[in-house]
Design a protein that fits this description.
By secondary structure, this protein is α/β, with parallel strands linked by helices. Helix content is 31%, strand content 18%. The strands form two sheets. It has a six-stranded parallel beta sheet with strand order 8-7-6-10-9-11. A five-stranded mixed beta sheet has the order 1-4-3-5-2.
């Protein structure tokens, strides 16, 4: 049986992970073996457990102990700490309202290499400096649903294991393989060596249509999306094999990066023979 602890002292060090540590402190780059992340909601926690993530502790409303927390706790060590308190106390402690009344602190898993992520992939997404965690989560959800086999990110972008990103993704950050691209080498050339043709999403007059036969027939394709507002860097666009854009009407010149990802993944993933991950 889990170790149930009713919260009486907000200052107890065991609650620092939920109430006082910043995202940078959780990532703990100086000591990656002890890095943590916070999963929010039973769905996200369950998918994290299924992917092999190791739980450290739980924080939840007491009513969940006899309902939606039960199947999660059954998959955890019997002595795992489970901190409980009323919703208003949890909101005061964490500073936000808990989605479905449950959080879980987990060890950050070791990330695979780019080669490992791409080994069996036909369609991948590349996110260059996408900063908003809500967009990251939405893109991962689209990737899982619309035929992307993996996601690669630049280190300057938002963390897929950030609490909001994993929640918005509906836990799909634990289902779609992902890793960071190395900063020391031009990544378009690295992907080319792995057999991928690269497709930059950019607003240019010479861009191809999404259903261009060359793209639809490509054996391996990397769909490259850029940061909010500025989009892809000129260097990245120049280094990619193709540039594509989404045709739009009524004078609209661009879509939110997450919305654009859904359109691109559907056409270049599912419609080109890709399969949902």
């Amino acid at each position: 049986m889990a170790h149930i602890i009713s919260i009486t002292d907000f200052d107890t060090p065991e609650l620092d992970v939920y109430a006082r540590l910043t995202e940078n402190q959780l990532v703990n780059r100086a000591d990656p073996a002890n890095a943590l992340f916070i999963a929010e909601s039973p769905l996200v926690i369950g998918r994290a457990l299924e992917s092999g993530c190791v739980p450290v502790s739980f924080l939840m409303e007491p009513r969940h102990l006899t309902s939606q927390a039960l199947p999660l706790l059954e998959r955890c060590p019997e002595d795992i700490p489970v901190y409980t308190a009323a919703p208003e106390v949890l909101t005061r402690l964490t500073g936000f309202h808990l989605t479905r009344g449950m959080l879980c602190a987990m060890r950050r898993p070791a990330l695979p290499t780019v080669e490992e992520v791409c080994a069996n992939a036909r369609r991948i997404a590349v996110l260059e400096n996408v900063m908003n965690p809500t967009n990251i989560g939405a893109i991962f959800r689209c990737a899982a649903a619309l035929g992307m086999d993996a996601v690669l990110l630049t280190a300057a972008g938002s963390d897929p294991l950030y609490r909001r990103a994993s929640r918005v993704s509906m836990g799909n950050v634990f289902l779609v393989p992902w890793t960071y691209l190395p900063e020391e080498a031009p990544w378009p050339e690295r992907l080319r060596r792995l057999g991928f043709q690269t497709v930059a999403m950019a607003l240019r007059e010479d861009s191809l249509l999404l259903n261009d036969p060359r793209l639809m027939a490509a054996e391996k394709l990397a769909v490259v999306l850029g940061t909010e507002g500025d989009g892809l860097s000129d260097g990245t666009i120049a280094a990619c094999d193709y540039t594509v854009r989404i045709p739009m009407t009524h004078g609209v010149d661009s879509l939110n990066v997450a919305a654009a990802s859904a359109v691109a993944f559907y056409q270049l993933g599912l419609m080109s023979g890709g399969a949902p991950t």
